[in-house]
Amino acid sequence: MINRVAYKDLKVLWASPVPYVVGALFHVMLGLLYVSQLETRKQAVIQPMFPLAAFLLLLTVPVLSMRAFAEEARSGSLDLLIAVPVPRWVLVTGKWLATWLTTLAVLAPSLVFVLLLHLYGNPESGPIEAGYLGLVLLAAVLAGIGVLASSLTTSQPLAALVALFVTLALWFAHVGSDTISTSTALARFSLSERLRTFAGGAIDTGDLWFFVLLTTAALIVAAAVLAVRKLR
Amino acid sequence: MIEARALTRRFGGRAVVRDVSFRVEPGEVVGFLGPNGAGKTTTMRMLLGLLRPDAGDVAVDGPVGFLPEVFAGYDALSVRGYLGFMARMKRATADGDVDRVATAAGVDDLLGRPIGRLSKGQRQRVGLAQALLGRPPSYVLDEPTQGLDPKQVVEMRDVIRSLAKADGAAVLLSTHLLAEAATVCDRVVVIAKGRVRAEERPGAAPDLEARFLRIVGEAELDADD
After folding, report:
1. Measured between CB atoms, which of B72, B77, B81 is closest to A76?
2. Subunit contact A81:B89, Cβ cutoff 8 A
3. pLDDT at residue B221 in the model
């Protein structure tokens, strides 16, 4: 049933202009920023692309995820599914899967940079694979947080704003950790710090588990939110 | 069978539904009548498991076929795609069941059309078709004939009657139309200001209208409320 929910959401999402517009803006921005990085370095390397793509994902995934539950709750179609009843965890997981796959599809054209590097050079594949694994895991977390935010409200813009605020807070969680002792614990939740290892070409299983557990936690909370909404 | 047992629900300290009890037997169409704000929708949401009661409980032979007052599908999906999706969610046999409910609801000629391009009446019939999926033993239908033209209203009422009389389902039908209640329903439950005020068999529509207005008028004057 999860794949049915995901397939339905993919069809609905890709029938709208949202993923196309978001994807176009993502790649225009990524291309400009990445090329400017290369010009500064005077060297064709892929590593600067990963943190740029990651930060742009922070800005784009909330737009892809905002309609997941907010629109269904607003229109009333969610009531039909809950009345069936479709288990809430199935709905949450299916919608997360659709958002994650859409994010990966939006990200996929960036592989052209890798292709160009292979055409004109002989880059190591390890750092590229690690960098992309980091982005794939980040997309999973962002999709989870986006679906959670969407489960909290019937307003799509509000869902996007909540998701953006939470992901930015997680991205910058390490800021000030050198000077403020309480921030050291928060730094462990910093998405940008966790991604740094992947972007550097290494895979840390601790970081990998961090992304998996954070995604799972977001989905569990989203399912709980849907259950609590029944109380209201 | 659909049964509400002493259902109570408050919003912000105000009781919107108070001690509501009634029962719909298999093979029976029961009309749920009441003025706007009487507590009909809140009661139906509790029956469907969409809202938790503060007190009382619900017994329903499930699954329930549910048609909301304003049906919302997915505009991007075709009618067949939508019904196929809902059939799988209901674990009904997909293709055969889709064709059966589409014919029953009169949308078999619309199966290839996107839901977003349907008229309000056509959408409402698609909503009925999804409610019919899987032949549920119980139905909750909220204003099912709203937005339909006169011919479609007659057809919809025939389908509703056949659900109870041919399939033996228990049907709870919310409606504002007293003539509809008189035509379709075996019994009516009248709710006003959150309480069940009367439960009776409808006679001719003018009689039902007079009784309904008297019951609602008395509820308005009820000092306890």
Report:
1. B72
2. yes
3. 66
Residue span of the structural domain in which B220 resides: 1-62+137-225
Q: How many domains does chain B have?
A: 2
Q: What is the pLDDT of residue B205?
A: 57
B94 touches chain A (CB under 8 A): no
Q: Residue B54, class by beta-carbon neighbours within 10 Å (0-12 exposed, 13-18 middle, 19+ buried)?
A: middle
**Domain boundary pick from B86, B104, B135:** B135
A17 vs B: CB within 8 A: no
- CA distance linking residue B185 with residue B163, whole number of Å: 12
Chosen for mutation from B74, B128, B132 (greatest number of chain A CBs closer than 10 Å) is B74
Q: Dihedral of the CA atoms A215, A218, A224, A228 (nearest 10)?
A: -160
Q: Give the pLDDT of residue A197.
A: 82
Q: Residue B141 — φ and ψ, nearest 5°? A: -120, 120
ipTM for the complex shown: 0.83
- Picking from B135, B162, B182, the residue at the C-terminal end of a domain is B135
Q: Which residues pair with B60 in a beta bridge?
A: B2
CA distance B184 to chain A (A): 24
Same domain, B141 and B58: yes
Contacting residues of A for B70, CB less than 8 Å apart? 76
The tokens 């699954």 sit on which residue? B63
Residue A30 CA: distances (Å) to CA of A41, A140, A174, A227: 16, 20, 24, 39
B78 beta partners:
B114
pLDDT at A99: 96
Verify that B120 and B148 share a domain, yes or no.
no
pLDDT at position B110: 92
pLDDT in tens, B25-42: 999 999 998 888 888 989
CA distance B65 to B161: 14
Q: Do A4 and B81 touch (CB under 8 A)?
A: no
What is the mean pLDDT, run by run of 10 residues, along chain A of 232 residues?
92 93 94 86 80 93 93 88 86 96 95 86 84 93 96 92 92 69 69 82 86 95 86 56
pTM above 0.90, yes or no: no
> φ and ψ at B188, to 5 degrees?
-130, 145
Q: How much is the pLDDT for A181? A: 56
Pairing of strands B170-174, B29-33: parallel
